[in-house]
Design a protein that fits this description.
Layout lengths: L1 H65 L2 H4 L3 H14 L3 E7 L5 E5 L14 H9 L3 E2 L3 E2 L5 E11 L2 E10 L1 H9 L9 E5 L5 E3 L10 H4 L4 H10 L5 E11 L2 E16 L2 E10 H4 L1 H19 L4 H39 L1 E7 L4 E4 L1 H7 L8 E2 L9 H17 L3 E8 L5 E12 L5 E10 L1 H28 L5 E6 L4 E4 L1 H7 L3 H4 L10 H17 L3 E9 L5 E13 L2 E11 L1 H24 L4 E4 L4 E4 L1 H4 L1
Antiparallel strand pairs: 1-2, 1-6, 3-5, 4-5, 5-6, 7-8, 7-11, 9-10, 10-11, 12-13, 12-17, 13-14, 15-16, 16-17, 18-19, 18-22, 20-21, 21-22, 23-24
Helix pairs in contact: 1-5, 1-9, 1-10, 9-10
């Protein structure tokens, strides 16, 4: 009876252990998959943001070019600008064309000259841009030379009328590869990018790029189901199965994936980031198999199963805690290394007795040393810390050892390549029971950028003050209203006439940003002319703009925008302002009075005449002729 009870207890314990084991295994598996999916979402969002930013930048540049008169009229200046634009974007752009309103290519840059005159109006994206007259991004298509490409077309308007488009061929493979090649999760994790129509724009599987995902994955229903959601612009988390061949064997792989859209203009792309489940849970499977072996041994040794079962559970728990502690330690160490790299901070320990220092990895990078010795002799510091800086450093170290005090000094070091950097080195002395310093510990930070920035700010402040004084001497006496902005579009000078028009004080105008502090209505009227002068670097005249002052009063203004150029860079703008409200009002009243006079003369049958005696010329009004 006792044996039966004992056996029953042992069996219950065994099945309880098995149940608990698989429960823990399934929970660990779920957590591992959730963690990978969160990581894949981060990768997908980063890639999506990067691709969208790059394409949006190209769209903005092409829109700006499409408004330039030289580009619209295809002057030599406009053609030279194409060359300049391509030079700056040659990584992303492989062609530039100008198409007329009928869809005929009138100019090309980088394409063979024989395509000029070709009619491309039947291409789907060209039909759309001609019909809707809005910027269009094409799907992947074959260009006139037979190559896969994606095109961006922006409408061009001449004298307010549609005059065709400005188009660029986008090197989508280079753009996409740049941001998706780096997505590697384990050995089998990768990214896929498809267009709105399901065309694969990026895929690590050879032969898939340019093909429809519905063709390449037609034998995999789970992929087709996911793709149907993607072409609708949806985002989500899913699993799918896919076959691959290894050693002439077809292996079915289950993958966990996330997908989300990348939206811009008239279309969108969808990105997939996927990882094989086997890689996600490989470490858990290894642990599971080891435990199963332990359980098998426990079953064989039934007499000791209760003892060893409890012990195994304890070992597993401790193993899990140990791995977690090790992972946390590695995580903290990696975080410290990354923090030191980002902050350009290295740490070190100096043994007073051996006169040798142990450096962290970042210390070697700060000093520009490729070798990573275990210990650095104190005298070797002389090779990198020269002259006056060595005397400062050596004195600080000597005082710290003798008095047990720390130090905080800024010195310069000379790298092996001759470059000098400024560093801030700090130290704390460690004292033994005998009251003697046995070790110095501290940090060294590369503060070169901070020092250079401080120097640049000082120089900029000095330059800004000189410029302000110059404007005050030259422009303060002029009767025209004038304000001057710096390269960041912030007002640095305004004369009294400007303050009177703005109905504000001079000091209240200075420091205002054109883009942030000016009235929204004012920006809509004024900023397009300001941006034109800023981009073209040529003086621009604006006339009869409806401007709202700081006090809320509406007035009509005209003037000139004159860009300031220093060292071939935009450094500010001189803005002249004239309030022409009364002038326009008087002109309107004069026209009305002329109409009334003509009407009165007609009703009264009254005419007038002017006799120029000198020229012997007489001028009659209409009523005199009547």
């Amino acid at each position: 009876m006792k044996n039966k009870v004992h056996i029953t207890i042992i069996i219950i314990l065994i099945f309880s252990c098995i149940f608990l084991f698989f429960s823990f295994y399934n929970l660990a598996k779920k957590n591992a998959i959730d963690q990978i999916n969160r990581l894949q979402i981060i990768y997908a969002k980063q890639a999506s943001r990067s691709i969208r930013t790059k394409l949006t930048g190209l769209i903005r540049h092409v829109k700006s070019m499409a408004k330039m008169k030289s580009v619209i009229s295809l002057t030599k200046k406009g053609k030279d600008f194409f060359k300049y634009f391509y030079h700056n974007h040659r990584y992303e752009v492989n062609s530039i064309i100008r198409m007329n309103k009928k869809g005929i290519i009138t100019f090309s840059y980088l394409y063979p000259k024989n395509i000029i005159g070709k009619n491309i109006s039947k291409q789907t994206h060209v039909e759309n841009v001609i019909k809707h007259k809005k910027p269009i991004m094409s799907d992947i298509f074959k260009n006139v030379e037979g190559f896969d490409m994606i095109a961006l077309h922006v409408p061009v308007y001449k004298n307010g009328k549609f005059d065709g488009t400005l188009g660029i061929g986008i090197n989508f493979k280079k753009i996409i590869n740049r941001y998706l090649d780096i997505i590697k999760i384990g050995k089998g994790g990768y990214a896929i990018l498809i267009s709105k129509k399901g065309i694969e724009l990026y895929c690590p599987v050879p032969g898939h790029i340019g093909q429809s995902i519905f063709d390449t994955s037609k034998n995999f229903p789970s992929i087709i189901k996911m793709a149907k959601k993607m072409i609708k612009g949806k985002a989500g988390v899913t699993t799918y199965n896919f076959n691959y061949v290894r050693d002439k064997k077809v292996i079915n792989v289950k993958k966990h994936a996330v997908y989300m859209p990348i939206k811009f203009l008239n279309t969108y792309w969808s990105i997939i980031v996927a990882t094989p489940e086997k890689e996600i849970i490989s470490s858990i499977i290894y642990l599971r198999n080891r435990i199963l072996i332990v359980l098998a041994v426990l079953l064989i040794t039934a007499g000791l199963i209760s003892y060893y079962g409890l012990k195994s559970f304890t070992i597993l728990k401790e193993e899990k805690m140990r791995k977690k502690a090790e992972a946390e330690l590695i995580k903290n160490q990696n975080a410290l290394i990354e923090a030191q790299r980002l902050g350009k901070i290295g740490s070190w320990e100096f043994d007073v007795e051996t006169q040798k220092a142990v450096w962290s990895k970042q210390m070697y990078e700060i000093f520009g040393i490729t070798e990573t010795k275990t210990e650095i002799e104190y005298e070797k510091h002389k090779k990198y810390i020269l002259g006056y800086d060595w005397s400062v450093f050596n004195s600080a170290v000597t005082e710290a050892i003798e008095n047990g005090t720390g130090y905080d000094i800024i010195i310069k070091i000379t790298k092996p390549d001759g470059n000098k950097v400024s560093v801030n080195t700090r130290c704390k002395a460690q004292i033994n029971k005998q009251g003697k310093v046995y070790k110095l510990v501290g940090t060294t930070q590369d503060i070169t950028e901070r020092i250079n920035t401080q120097n640049e700010i000082k120089a900029l402040l000095k330059s800004t003050e000189k410029r302000k004084n110059f404007y005050e001497r030259i422009l303060s006496k002029t009767t025209d209203a004038v304000r001057v902005t710096d390269k960041n579009d912030v007002v640095i000078y305004a004369n009294q006439a400007m303050a009177e028009i703005a109905e504000s004080g001079v000091e209240e105008l200075i420091g205002n940003s054109l883009y942030k502090d000016f009235h929204k209505k004012t920006n809509q009227e004024f900023l397009p002319f300001y941006e034109q002068a800023k981009k073209t670097r040529e003086a621009v005249k604006y006339e009869n703009l409806n401007i709202e002052t700081a006090a809320g009063k509406n007035c009509i203004q005209s003037g000139w925008l004159i860009p300031l150029i220093e060292n071939d860079n935009f450094s500010g703008m001189i803005c002249t302002v004239q309030d022409v409200s009364e002038k326009l009002k008087a002109e309107i009243e004069l026209k009305e009075n002329e109409k009334r006079l003509k009407l009165a003369q007609s009703l009264a049958h009254l005419g007038f005449w002017i006799w120029n005696v000198k020229e012997e010329e007489v001028i009659w009004s209409d009523e005199v002729y009547n």
